[in-house]
Amino acid sequence: MRLILLGPPGSGKGTQATGIAEKCSIPAVSTGDLFRKNIAEGTDLGKKAESYTKSGKLVPDDLVLDMVADRLSQADCEKGYLLDGFPRTVPQAEGLKKMLAERGADLDHVVQIDVADEEIVERLSARRTCEKCGAIYNLKFSPPSVEGVCDKCGSDRLQQRADDVPETIRQRLSVYHDQTAPLVEYYREAGLLRPVDGSQPPKKVAEAIAANIS
Hints:
Rossmann fold, 5-stranded parallel beta sheet, globular
């Protein structure tokens, strides 16, 4: 099974990606992880990507596609994979379609986790991170046992990250919608889009995804 998982920041996409990958026995392929791995290992692709990220520029589509193609050619992807964070734009989607066609393959499903912007803002602005051990809490859904104190290490340094401030979250959502709205329509027209209500509890979201891809 070859899947794409779409969803805004704070939609629970990462949690669902892990669950789908485990249930379907396929690897979850994240472009963010690919960038970090290639850069850390000093591969040719990693060096090229780093030259852009260091100067604050977006990595070009052809380089992103090369990195994804390299990952999908590995043995653990033979029986399928889940793409998380890719494609982000219609040109990337078209590049992926061409790459798969050259391999005699195609996508099976594109799952879209849909959550209203204001709920995303509420979710992410309630997130707190322990400065000492990195543990993450949500004041609404999963608060620490003692207010302001980390359950794992006992530190009282639970902070709100700069990118979890409401104004920044709305900015991130605006960028996401600008990039993804055309992509959603692209896959809807292709008959591949499987929308799921992401405002439900994680278990219900997982059940809805399973029903859509079975």
